[in-house]
Amino acid sequence: MTHGVVETPVFMAVGTQATVKGLTPEMLEEIGTQVVLGNTYHLALRPGDDLIAEMGGLHRFMHWNRPILTDSGGYQIFSLAANLKITDQSAVFRSHIDGSLFELSPERAVRIQENLGSDIAMCLDECPSLADPKPNQLRAAVERTIRWAERCRNAHTRPDQALFAIVQGGLDLDLRAFCAEALTRLDFPGYALGGFSVGETNQQTLTALEPTTALLPADKPRYLMGVGRPIDILQAVARGVDMFDCVLPTRNGRNAMAFTAEGTLRLKNACHKRDSRPLESGCACPTCRHYSRAYLHHLFLAEEMLGPTLVSLHNVSYYNRLMTEIRDAVVGGRFADYLAVNLARWGGSS
Amino acid sequence: MTHGVVETPVFMAVGTQATVKGLTPEMLEEIGTQVVLGNTYHLALRPGDDLIAEMGGLHRFMHWNRPILTDSGGYQIFSLAANLKITDQSAVFRSHIDGSLFELSPERAVRIQENLGSDIAMCLDECPSLADPKPNQLRAAVERTIRWAERCRNAHTRPDQALFAIVQGGLDLDLRAFCAEALTRLDFPGYALGGFSVGETNQQTLTALEPTTALLPADKPRYLMGVGRPIDILQAVARGVDMFDCVLPTRNGRNAMAFTAEGTLRLKNACHKRDSRPLESGCACPTCRHYSRAYLHHLFLAEEMLGPTLVSLHNVSYYNRLMTEIRDAVVGGRFADYLAVNLARWGGSS
After folding, report:
1. Annotation says A160 is catalytic
2. CB proximity A38 to B under 8 Å
3. A301: which chain B residues are within 8 Å (Cβ-Cβ)?
4. Chain B contact for A246, CB < 8 A?
5. Which residues of B touch A47 (CB under 8 A)?
6. Which of A46, A70, B255, B266 is deepest in the core (most CB within 10 A)?
7. Do B51 and A299 touch (CB under 8 A)?
8. Active-site residue (options: B71, B119, B125, B242)
9. Across the interface, do A298 and B274 touch by the CB < 8 Å criterion?
10. Where are the alpha helices (DSSP H) in chain B?
11. Which pairs from A103-106 meet CB under 8 Å and 24+ separation?
12. In a 3-state reduction of DSSP, which class is residue B325?
């Protein structure tokens, strides 16, 4: 890619509104972040992709010189927008910011992402709710997702940007297979798995993951969108996934929750008040090198901005370290052991 | 000082609760911050000076290895605490955080600051309101401030910490002189001017400043507490002041107001929406090197934490640069010219 090589499996830090909340690009680089994700829906509404293009593109606008992936806006339309009307032509909805009318077609989603200048763009997809899926609705969404993927591919012009397609189909393995095969025939440089929410209480979802990744070309990256907890990522890597993004490390960081190999810490708890230890012994992140749990506890009680920043920094670093450990285990032929040890520690099933 | 030499005149960044709001120590070092100020009142109430001592002192607690000055808590007692009862023995008040009862005597103020381990500590003083000063009240406060300064000096034991006294007296030049002379006889390594609020609409205050600094030893630093705007600092340097602190660069930074040599910018204003220029051309701070006004405008509209951080960073850097320019002008024998040019530009009187 124009902005550098990415080692997989990789965790991508979420920078929805052209900033990873509370962290500077320098901090992200220091902890080894390889890719930042930007959200097409948010950025198209504010400040606008035309403005970002005018400012030299998203990399320059937000001062991030490593690779950027932008999503297509599909997921946000279904979760954030109001008054959604969806036809084969496009999705028309009202902005959650100011109520203004916005139309997103496959062609527009591609144009926006070409304006943003991300290294990886995503095809516009239809994301029906998984909570109460109706079979016909799910099939219609898959068929539309395939038609839209083809239109995105036809509209796409930037040679310095890779366009990935998104496999939908919910928990219906036949639909997932149908979608994966149709998209593979269109020959994209990478594929995402949309509409999954992996969780330890949802063994069904986990079961649906492996057959789907198996249908996708082995030499192309597979990206599981919006997932998840460390244990979810580990289990998904075991099922062939290469790329991840999730708001958990930064969202939990802002809420005083730290990830560690020994489990999570809630820094507002009184037990941390006089604890001179770092969040995680042996962690090389700036937060663990320089600050005690007692100091972080104090920052959260005093409602100081530095608390969310320092814990987010550790959490993203923790996710990056997890991915490095996974890569090393894979390269060293030790991944099965690594998986077993960590699942036993975290209480998950393989 | 144990933590390094300070070049004066100096601006000290305010780190009330053991953090300069929104900025990391690394950011502060990068922009040349020499001293950080911690607030005794806030830190004694939360997390407690005993806890900070247990954690190795304030420098280690907040990861700031350059000099720290702590105030005495006097000013905050009078402005923040509830149910204040003041006697010669001590000030008794209720915490603004949890309503608990707290007693601050000169001896306790010194012990707290010795626990914090600051490089410069301040004597406890009485700060009567300047808004409606009663002559007897002002004189009584000055006399108590002198008695308390002597008790602080007697209680002070740390050889690695300098204890400064505070000159009170409001706008009464005779009282100021009386206070300055009495404190000078007690021979402190530095003196502060308390109870001043310099402002261009308050020529009276400015007039009272010079006679007071003239009464203090020329070879000891003079510190004007809590002041102020760039023009206030410049005018105070012209009247013999060496040290300053003020919340303006960080508070205004959080409120989207940037200081520049050409005046202030309000970044939420629509005029910045498509402005690709940095906050200030030629400014070497990280914010100006890497980000456009358009990006900062976007961050504030999107209510992203990085906005307050980046503008605070520029503002503290701006204050630091102002002090460097002043020092260079003094060393080069050009201060009178520098003063005249900037007062003309900022519309103040010398």
Report:
1. no
2. no
3. 46-47
4. no
5. 273, 294, 297-298, 301
6. A70
7. no
8. B71
9. no
10. 25-30, 40-45, 49-54, 58-62, 74-79, 106-116, 135-155, 173-185, 203-214, 230-237, 248-254, 286-290, 293-301, 306-331, 335-346
11. A104/A41, A104/A44, A104/A73, A104/A77, A105/A151, A106/A148, A106/A149, A106/A151, A106/A152, A106/A155
12. helix
The catalytic position among A49, A71, A125, A232 is: A71
- 8 Å CB contact of A21 and B306: yes
- Please give the span between the terminal C-alpha atoms of chain A, in angstroms, as a whole number: 33
Q: Would an 8 Å CB–CB cutoff place A214 in contact with chain B?
A: no
Question: Is B17 close to A298, i.e. CB distance below 8 A?
Answer: yes
Closest CA to A72 of A102, A26, A113, A34: A113
CA torsion sign for A325, A326, A327, A331 is positive
Q: What pTM, to 2 d.p., does this model score?
A: 0.96
- Is 0.95 exceeded by the ipTM? yes
Which pLDDT score, from 0 to 100, does residue A349 have? 62
Q: Write the pLDDT tens digit of every residue in A191-227.
A: 999 988 655 456 777 888 889 999 999 999 999 999 9
pLDDT digits (tens, 9 = 90+) for A21-79: 999 999 999 999 999 999 999 999 999 999 999 999 999 999 999 999 999 998 888 88
- pLDDT tens digits along B74-95: 888 888 878 889 999 999 999 9
Give the start-end residues of each E strand in A147-256. Answer: 162-167, 191-193, 222-224, 243-246
Put simply, the answer to whether B19 touches A304 (Cβ < 8 Å) is: yes
User: B118 with B58: CB under 8 angstroms?
Assistant: yes
Going by C-beta distance under 8 Å and a sequence separation of 6 or more, which residues neighbour residue A43?
A17, A18, A49, A52, A58, A70, A112, A116
Minimum CA–CA partner of B48 in chain A: A298
Q: Which residues of A touch B42 (CB under 8 A)?
A: 302
Pick B308's closest partner by Cβ from A25, A63, A305.
Answer: A305
Nearest CA-CA distance, residue A46 and chain B, Å: 8
Annotation says A172 is catalytic: no
Neighbours of B92 (CB within 10 A): 17
Q: Give chain B's mean pLDDT.
A: 94
* Tens of pLDDT, residues A163-185: 999 999 988 899 999 999 999 99
pLDDT tens-place string over residues A241-281 = 999 999 999 999 999 999 999 999 999 999 999 999 999 99
**In this predicted structure, what is the pLDDT of residue B256?**
98
Structure tokens at A86: 């969806």
Map residue A38 onto helix, strand or coil: strand
Inter-chain residue contact B291 with A17, CB threshold 8 Å? no
- Which one-letter DSSP state was computed for residue A287? H
Residues B114 and B111: their CA atoms lie apart, in Å, by: 5
**Distance of alpha carbon A135 from alpha carbon A142, whole angstroms:** 11
Q: At residue A131, does pLDDT exceed 70?
A: no
Q: Which residues of A touch B56 (CB under 8 A)?
A: 276
Among the partner-chain residues B23, B273, B295, the one whose CB lies closest to the CB of A61 is B295
What integer pLDDT is reported at residue A311 of this predicted model? 98
The values of phi and psi at residue A60, to 5°, are -70, -40
Residue A164 is encoded by which pair of tokens? 């990935």
- Which chain A residues are closer than 8 Å to B24 by Cβ? 286, 306, 309
Ordered by where they begin, the domains of chain A are 10-246 (3.20.20.105), 253-346 (no CATH)
Q: How far apart are CA B210 and CA A111, in angstroms?
A: 64
Q: What is the pLDDT of residues A281-311, one digit of tens each?
A: 999 999 999 999 999 999 999 999 999 999 9
